[in-house]
Structure formats: C-alpha cells, structure tokens
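Can't attach files on this board, so I'm pasting raw text. These are the components:
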Amino acid sequence: MKNFLTLSITSFVFFTVLWVLWHFLDSHVIFLEGKGTLFYLPHAARVLCIIYFGYRAIPAIYLGELVGPIVLNPDLYSFSTLLPSFISVMSVPFALILLNTLGLTLGETRSSPLNRRNYKHIFLITFISAGFNALVVNLYMSRNNLSFPNAITDIELVLQFFIGDLLGTIIVFTFLALLLIPVLRQARN
Amino acid sequence: MKEFYKNISDALAMLDGLEKDLNIRHLTPNELKVFYTVIVRSECNNYGSNISDIVVNSGMSRSTVYKTLRKLSQEGIIQLHQSEEDGRESLVILNN
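---
Top answer:
Structure tokens for the assembled complex are below.
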C-alpha cells in the first residue's frame, strides 16, 4: 500500500482533468460538438495510470469515471454508469492479462517482452484495451436496451468507441510528448 | 516515494521516445511555439497564414518570429510565399 494515496490522487486528478477537457470540447467547441466518442481523451489516463502505477490505480480511475457523469454533469447520461464505467476501467487490466497469457509480460527493460518505456508497446496495450472497451460496453448497453445520448448502440458505435479511445490516447500522448518533454528538458538545463 | 518517481520517470521515458520519433526534438521552445501557431493557423486557413497573424497569435516579437520562420523554412518544415493580395506580406504554408 506504499504510495497508494499519492498515486490515487495523481490518477484521479489526471483522469478528471482529461474528462473535463473532453466534455468541454464535446459540448462547447462548435466543430467538435457531439463528436466526443471519436476522441475520448480520458482513455489515455486509464492506460497511463494502470500501466505505470499498477492495479492500485484502479479505484482512483474508477472514481474519476463516476465523478464526471454523476457529479460534474448529472444530466449527461440517462442510465447508471456504475457497470459501464467499471468495464471501461477494466479494459486495460484485461489487455495486460491477455498479453501476459500470451507470454508478453510487461517489464521496464529492453529485454522485457513488453517494455513500458517503449511507446509502441504502450500503443499495443491501448489498441487491445480500446477493442475490449468498445465491444463489452456496447454489448452491455445493447443487452439492457440502453443508449448513449444521440447514438444508437450498434456496430458503428463499437467502431466509434474503438477509434475514439485510440485517437484520444494518441492525442494526449502526442500533446504530452511535444509540450511536457521540452518544458522538462528546459527546466533541467 | 522513490517508486512513485520511478514510475513517473518510466512514463516520461516513453514520451521521450515518442517525441524523438516525431522528429521535432531539435526545435527550441521558441521554434516549437511558432510551429504550433503555424499549425493552428493552418487549420483556420488552407491558403496559408500571414506572418502578422502568427506574430499576434504566438505572442512573440516580429523579429523572433521572422528568424524562426526562416529556420523552419530552411529545414523544409514550412514554405514561405509572397502574398498575391499584399506584396509586402509573406504567407506561411505547412509542408506535407
């Protein structure tokens, strides 16, 4: 339980900031309005926090998933997000367990089958988790006759979720790589 | 706390690799700022953005922007064309 509080606060804040930013873009930026499923930025927080902080980050990420639709904008969804949010959070552990079963264990050295310091390996985890999230969340929605606002739960929405998680993660990673890294490098010099 | 920083350091190493492969590591923070401004302005105008707009939007001095644009042009990242509407103005176009 070492550092549990620190990593939980970091994960929660990171997820919530991305969720607020995503929600703002989805509802207030004219040319992006209603297209939020195509660039779901918070998926990057799920991936980064669970990969780098481990499974201990799951409660904080789950709390972040719930705070957005329940506290910040209670009118956003007309159904309970308790289970869909849990499925979304578990998509990253699912990807890690699947890859581990295939012999691709996550490590931090060049000799590790999956190196968490290599962005291409992180993208592979993102790809699998995005697929799992898109399929299982929409399966749950269709089995319970539920739907997201302005969307019909069908194969097209599965594809939109998949692309949205991938694109959202790529946008956040690229943004962090292009802005954060030069700033940190300059601060170090 | 050491483990927490180690995790953050691994995440930064991953982002560092991504930045390296995006191939814009050699740009200074000022050059990056001008580059981002050019990208944002290009989104608004397909025919290129004029330098005055970039000066206003980047918040940097005209001479710094000119110097930076010359460097970006020499590196083949952008092209500078004379505006047909105003001969004194140059248009900045992003290279594909």
